[in-house]
Amino acid sequence: MSRARLVGMGLCGLLAGCQSANDSLIPPASAQRAAENAALSTSRRTAVVDAASRLSSAVVSITVSSRRRVIERSPWDFFFIPRETEQLVPSSGTGFIVKSDGVIITNQHVVAGAESITVTLPDGTDLPGTLVGEDPTTDIAVVRVDRRNLDVVALGRSTDLMIGEWVVALGNPYAFLLGNSEPSVTAGVVSATHRNILPNDEQPGLYLDMIQTDAAINPGNSGGPLANALGEVVAVNSSIFTGGGGSSGSIGLGFAIPIERAMRVADEILRTGRVQRAWTGLEVAGPSAMQDWKSQGGVTVTRVAANGPAARGGITEGTILVEASGRRLRNYLDWEAVKLDLHVGDKVTVRIKRGSGSETREFTTGDLPTSTATKVTVLRGLEVVSVTPAIQAERGLRAPRGALIVQVTDEVARGTGLREGDVILAINRSLVTNAKQFGELLEASRADQAFRIYFERNGQTIFTDLVFRR
Prior knowledge:
Layout: H1 3-9, H2 28-44, H3 47-55, E1 59-71, E2 84-99, E3 103-106, H4 108-111, E4 114-120, E5 126-135, E6 140-145, E7 154-155, E8 166-171, E9 184-197, E10 207-213, E11 225-228, E12 232-240, E13 254-258, H5 259-272, E14 278-279, E15 282-284, H6 290-296, E16 299-304, H7 309-312, E17 320-324, E18 327-328, H8 332-340, E19 347-354, E20 357-364, E21 366-367, H9 369-372, E22 376-378, E23 382-386, H10 389-395, E24 403-408, H11 410-416, E25 423-427, E26 430-431, H12 435-444, E27 450-457, E28 460-467
Parallel strand pairs: 7-12
Antiparallel strand pairs: 1-2, 1-4, 2-3, 3-6, 4-5, 5-6, 8-9, 8-11, 9-10, 10-13, 11-12, 12-13, 14-21, 15-16, 16-17, 17-18, 17-19, 19-20, 22-23, 23-24, 24-25, 25-26, 25-27, 27-28
């Protein structure tokens, strides 16, 4: 073979098994490395990665503008009282889409007092949001945007969660401050279930039957989804615990609202615009009875409304409740958790302590007396109902009669100092026995003449002096 011919054949002609001059050659070591990288690439796609990818397109950022009172500060504050003003303050949170026609679930505290709501989709699109309804008791709100064919989350169950199983939290911490609208992902495990969080100065609401996780829930994540490893939403991220008791950062104690409760509340809001609470007609001993719970093995009934649901079921004052709706009652928060998930008309089975044993009672829940009572509107922004024995029992009031404020506008509240839940007892020297009389006494007052209103608030009787301007 000539030298010219050898060059013309190239390397392919000298190697056995070479098929064509276009075939690429990979040294054995490189081929092995490529196979290892392919295997590693496959192993990188974990259940957490899959869960996040299934959810992220349905997680939105929510930016809210609300009017809040702020105190103006100056170097003269030492000598003078700082002035209070109102400003529009922005805040942010997270939500997730549950219906393709723009229905979004978030936390109520994210949208509380909102004058405007902006929903940012994962692709960066900003849409105006409308607050459909909110429920402070469960910390759930429903927001809607005018958009169709949106991606929605898959819903799972919180009832079969296992302690220690993987969960994924998605949210938008610090919202636009991070420069884009893609949701952040944190992973952890289910630390505990059925957690009841006691109220405190910074978190006055009751968070009941919560799911605890060590997946980081940072500021701005409130309202986002907590999902299992299948990418199914099992809860709504709601609160975090920090060293100072606030919500400025995560230390591995995150809490989320079970998805069954969130969806029940959302469905009621979409159907009727509000959440209808069920009435049991009984009260149990509160935080001061902690030692009694431990020694008695249950919670003590402290008040029963005459002819109320519990009374008709044979429950009397002093009865010790051991179990309700299949849930063990260790303290009053367990009972509150049971009530929170009851519908009007539900049958409630309770086990009560009887001597050294126990027996079962059953009753059917009813409407809250305040929801069925006749409403009287006064001052064009104050709605009251007459206090009845049933309402007294429902609200735990000291006053057996009077006018209970069930709704008050911000303007009237600022002008009078009155709040929802106050019971009007008297105007000047005239006792108020019902809602209608309260309205008549106000109408009879003379313009520009001061008068004194006595009312009950948190069990205390206080008064305020007002001037009625027509």
